[in-house]
Amino acid sequence: MLSASFNDRNLQAKIDELKSKVDKQRILNLLGAVSLSYIQGTYTNETDPYGLKWQALSIQTIRARRKKGAGAKILKDTGNLFNSANYQVMGSNVHIGFNAAYSQYHQAGSKNLPQRAVVPDNSRGLPARLKAELLDALDIWAKQ
After folding, report:
1. Strands across the sheet containing 85-90
2. In the chain, fewer beta carbons within 10 Å around the N or the C end?
3. Beta strand 85-90 pairing with 93-98
4. In angstroms, rounded to a whole number, what is the distance separating the alpha carbons of residues 104 and 98?
């Protein structure tokens, strides 16, 4: 499974604030669901989690797909990769990712395959837009 997880001080502070009001597992499931929706949205928009557009399909790939009667959307030939998107709560962590075995090749790219990242890169940290969405979800939950 290709996955990403992050340790963010602002998110952790908000989680700690809510822990006294709500079961931590429910909070983590909320964060997982918001993160999953986010990565599915960036995937649908054909961007990496930081908003950078994926490299376009080659003319050869488009022609081959059209011969098979398939469309020209990036990483949407069979739908298997998109449909493998998930999140898992493991202890006090949330992991978001894709179960398709080949997802790592799209994430990193290779000699013959351009990089089309589908999950945030741990070394780059949490995308600002995702962090904002997570904090907003926690704020809304705190007001309930």
Report:
1. 2-4, 93-98, 85-90
2. C
3. antiparallel
4. 9
Query: How is residue 31 written in tokens?
Result: 């964060």
End-to-end, the C-alpha distance of the chain in Å comes to 35
Measured from the Cβ of residue 9, the count of other Cβ atoms closer than 10 Å reads: 7
Contacts of 100 (CB under 8 A, 6+ apart): 2, 80, 81, 84
Q: Rounded to an integer, what distance in angstroms lies between the CA atom of residue 39 and that of residue 19?
A: 26
DSSP summary character for residue 65: H
What residue ranges do the domains of the chain occupy? 2-143
pLDDT of the chain along its 144 residues, tens only? 666 666 778 888 888 878 777 788 888 999 999 999 999 999 999 999 999 999 999 999 889 888 887 777 899 888 899 999 999 998 888 999 999 999 999 999 999 899 999 999 988 989 999 999 999 999 988 887
Residues 96 and 119: beta-carbon distance below 8 Å:
yes
- What is the distance between the alpha carbons of residues 16 and 85, in angstroms, rounded to a whole number? 27
Return d(Cα 24, Cα 139) in angstroms, integer: 15
SS3 8: coil
